[in-house]
Amino acid sequence: MRKSLFAITALLLVTLFAGCGQKSQKSRPDTIVIAVNADFDHLNPLLIQMSLAREVCTMIYPSLVRPSFDEKSGAISYQPNAAESWEFTPDGRSVTFHLKRDAVWEDGKPLTSKDFSFSYRLYADPAVASSRQDYLNDLLLKPDGSVDFDHAVETPDSKTLVLHFNKPMSESIALDHFNDLMPVAEHIFRPIPAAEIRQRAATLPVMGTGPFRLKEWQRQSKVTLASSPTSVLPHPAATPSVTFMVVPEYTTRLAMLKSGQIDALISAGGINPKDAAEMAKSNPDIAIIPVADRYFDSVVWLNIDGEAWRNGKKIAPNRLFGDRRVRQAMTLAIDRQAIIDGFMGPEHATIVNTTLSPAYTSIIDQSLPAYAFDPDKALALLKEAGWTPGPDGILQKNGLRFSFELAAPTGNPRRNYAATIIQQNLREIGIDCKLKFDEALMFNKNQNEYRYDAALSGLAAETLPFQLVIWGSDFEKKPFNSSAFQNARLDKVVSQLTGPLPKTEQLKLWKEYQQILANEQPRTFLYYYDELEGFNKRVENVRLSLLATLGNMYDWKVGKN
Q: Structure pTM?
């Protein structure tokens, strides 16, 4: 009822003010307004999991370096940020970062190496339960497997940070991992017990050193950032204010963009391709900017019994999807091309059978099984796994009907459309698939607690280093492994890929990585798609890339015209 009332209210507001777009823009000459489908989970780097929340945090908190993606070479390079320079030892076991001397927190306190050292301990603390705690396992470890912080992290002075690794590390992997571990201010968080950080998340201070500072956060409504005048990372934001407005309904977001009530529509799939084509003709004041090969959708099949895990950390196969043959059958039974053709169009999506982005053409394994739509082959695999038609036509095994809920987040029309096609495809082979739609934050929470047997989910899996943190048999420490998939050989491959290797050995391991995922199908990998972001042309200097939508938000500004 609450959601319905909110949607009706939002639509009434759009109707009421549809003719006031220019007036609305004139009333906010120095503010950029962005519509998003859901509130951020957190604005604390220790706690974030949502990709857009992470991007906002990079605008508030200090990161060691700034990644940059070269579309021509397909390579990522790293530019100075909080660290003005760094050097690795020849054996790849240590790196020294030299921090900018004039970087300060919002309250004027200097940013120091001890802020990083202190924060790394919080990231590693099980009580904080950071989605990025696994990164700390790159550091020197004690015999019991915990991080040996006394020897792994050195702060010889306030502007020097030295990290020691437990094995030779690839420079790109180390920079990617530790750049993601944005610090909080030690002088602010030292008095807060680690065990209370997550439970007090809603009241924790948000204070950084970046180009923006938090001005206001009205939960489930809007977040406003203001330019931070003291920032040198890299400079105070060019626009005085940016507001993220939470608008769950896609049609409402689109109407607000067309009417000028908002300046940008991003996330949750961006703008539907069919709407983008129409807008190109009817709304010349709006620029449609594609972000390709960054986001993928998939159906996550829970490999374990979620209830047994929650009630006693017991690992037992999922009654439906614990069998690899069943997961393979699910992929064969889903007409992925029909989803693409019916919603995005073939020019805006690429079918994949692993998490790997099509952007990395040099390591894509072209020999992988295609898993083309084949209901007959799916049924044969299911029969081999013991599933046969019951009296009502629904497959059954030992008296268990093949019936489950497929969960998806609200406010994402692409996933809503895909869910409907998947439901229809599975019904045609005798599987009872019911659809369940949850608000985004609840959806993420339930996934993290393994409450869904199946979930239509996705990731921004743009970098190769991030590919290596999605999977891991210790899935309790790998929150992105939402299928709770365990594979000892994949663990070994991932571990080897974190080290410096000759290109031939890297290629061999990346192909094995893809082969394991394609064979096991812990998810039905649907497609990588173009997210079409919409920006009013009054917003200048917008540069989007494979790495981030908000990557250069500190340079965005409202033009004079």
A: 0.86
